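Input record (one chain):
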Amino acid sequence: MTETYQGWWDVPAHLLTKTALGELEFPRTCEGRKPDAFVEARDWRDRKALFALFDVRECPPTAASAAQLDTAQRRRVKTRACQDCGARCQQPLTTVGEHPVPARLCPACRHIALLRREQTRFAEHRARIAADVAAVLTGPPAVLLQLDLHEPPRTERGSRRPVTAARIQVADLDGTTLLDLTLRLVGPRAKWVPDGAIDKAEGLPRVREAIAGKRLVVWSADEVIELCKLDPDCEHPSPRFDVAWAWPCTRDCDPEWLTATRAKASTVEVRRVAAEWRGEVDPQTRLLVRSLPPGTPDRLALLIHRIATTDPADKEAR
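The corresponding structure, as predicted from the sequence alone:
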């Protein structure tokens, strides 16, 4: 079965497109060969496309003579020498960077340059993220909310069983516990219900009282959506259309608008801003690494205080 790669970062060096084979210093041809693999990527119009790849080791040289290749090389505008490390590459090099110093780089130097560019993009937004989170600590009354669903073991066939309970924890912004209870979502005789679980009708009024009139600070907005499902009488607005805290900082928008919209949000989702505040970029894919959830409300409180007190100039922060 022909393999399909999910991005250019996954493609081994010996697999090239038909165009790349023809642009080699000593070009090769894939005429008459079936593709050895495919890669899903975006084309020059930024549309998703599937590109055929061929094993350069199995592709024969073209009919071009050495004299023809030498003449063609002299006419080339593109260089094969990396302007950073000086490597003499077999393929023509692409330009990386904008004014005032664009450069033609080998694949390794290009990857490093693009990694640095992504890191710089997130570093530029770190101070604004810290200010937005700090405003939560000094703004309207707010509490931390964590909702964890209790899922029983799967069946022998691997099917999921219905959720039997939901643990709801509410804490103040310093992490002090205000409420910690487990709601039973099934009948009293059902299996796999945690000890100490109470009836939903008994526990939900206590939850409503704990969060009444408060902004909810959560790791994921899904926790508030789940709470609204459990309690149709919950007066807290659903965060389905409240996307300011999930808006990527690298996406074009007015920073002042984003800050103002976040200040008015009834639900503060920390998941996205935590990852962007960290600014950790995957060294292979150059994508933002997802931040792991802290796990408990007091740990979430510690995280938001660390974000809020960030000094952008301090690179030795612990």
